[in-house]
Amino acid sequence: MCEAGDAAGSRDRAPLDEEARFSALLEDSAEDLYERAPCGYLSTLLDGRIAKINATLLDWLGYERDDLVGRRHFSDLLTVGGKLYHETHFAPLLRMQREISGIALELKAADGSRLPVMVTSTVKTGSDGQALLIRTTVFDARDRRAYETELLRARREADLERDRLKLLNTTLQKTLLPPVLANVPGLDVDAYYHIASVDEVGGDFYDLFPLADGTWGLFLGDVCGKGAAAAAVTSLARYTLRAAAVYDPAPAAVLANLNTVLNHEYQGTDPRFCTVVFGLLTPDPLRGGFRITLASGGHPPALLMRADGTADYLPTPGGQLIGVLPDAHIATTTVHLAPGDTLLLHTDGLTEAHTHAVPGGKERYGDDALLDFGRQLAPTTASDTISSVRDLLDTFGTGVDDDTAVLAVHVPRTPSEEQQ
């Protein structure tokens, strides 16, 4: 029975002993908490002379207590730049506000090394409100400084990578467009490509090139999407159109060929398609000017501005997107371009641009507004048309959120026609 009682007593004493040990851990002296705190503590007189400093800060700086207390000022621990900042900003603000926190400074250690710190200082006052001394808390900012340095390095690398990407996108975009437009006898031609964002390659494209028997081919299109995938489709479409036109220049046949290639190449989970208009230009020796046959695959209609000052869209109804269906319906129209006439081809980045026509809001520019624009512009030339479109796009500013390609062809008048 005695042994059983002793065992029970031991079990009862165990929780008491454990509680006593835990209480002992909490009975650190205030002095020990001050000296071995995870941050530095510093007390100075109003003139900055060090009156008290804890062991933590002494260990960080590598000084003995007698080296600093009563002998050195707080500013003596600062770097040259830190001293200047302390005299011109830190100390004056502390006198006015009685407290200043989160100031980044560098302290000089005994061995000459630098210690980045975050400093908070408070003025201790007496019962009469008079300032007695300054208490300063110092936090080791070496990890923070290293983090900030790494963050700055990463940001610089990101900026360099962004610049390289912009250059790559610009270079790639140029390869998808003709460096210069072909010179067509008896015809003035001009074009412009407006880049909505330098961060991504757009999918708009155009070209003008010679074919056999004095005919010329031209096209302008817009691939769905942006980036490298759209650029690949743009490149394929551009070279397919040129090759198909050599084989059979009939505009409907050219677009049918492109439709077959895209539909075959891009199927399944990642379909790719485009809108495109292809034109065949042929000189008209009987009436002068040119005859142009346009085939459209879901593309916005061309705008014809006549020499007599009228303007209207060329009807190409029912044209379907190129690359979506195995056998797309291709709409075709033929028109005579007389001397003084100008034809404008464009992608929907122009008509889909946002304007500020509605107070407090935005609306799309739209086909009707572009038609009014053409009627005000007619009669015009290719260069004047492109210049006016560029000015128009500039008025939209950031409202142009898609790349825009425009191609204008103009039949110039002869000197005798100009005089009539």
Overall 3D shape: elongated
Poorly predicted regions are: none
Total number of beta strands:
17
Strand fraction band?
25-35%
What topology emerges from the helices and strands here?
Blueprint (H helix, E strand, L loop, with lengths): L1 H24 L4 H6 L4 E5 L5 E4 L1 H7 L3 H4 L11 H18 L1 E10 L5 E12 L5 E10 L1 H34 L12 E7 L9 E7 L5 E8 L3 H21 L3 H15 L8 E10 L6 E8 L5 E3 L5 E3 L17 E7 L4 E5 L1 H4 L2 E2 L7 E2 L1 H12 L4 H15 L7 E7 L4 H5 L1
Antiparallel strand pairs: 1-2, 1-5, 3-4, 4-5, 6-17, 7-8, 8-9, 9-10, 10-13, 11-12, 11-14, 14-17, 15-16
What does this structure look like?
Helices cover 39% and strands 26% of the residues. It is an alpha+beta fold and 420 residues long. Strands 2-1-5-4-3 form a five-stranded antiparallel beta sheet, with helices on both faces. It has a five-stranded antiparallel beta sheet with strand order 6-17-14-11-12. The longest helix is centred in the middle third of the chain and has 34 residues, at 142-175. Helix 7 crosses helix 8. The model has no long low-confidence stretch (mean pLDDT 84).
Which short descriptors sum up this protein?
alpha+beta; 420 residues; 12 helices; five-stranded antiparallel β-sheet
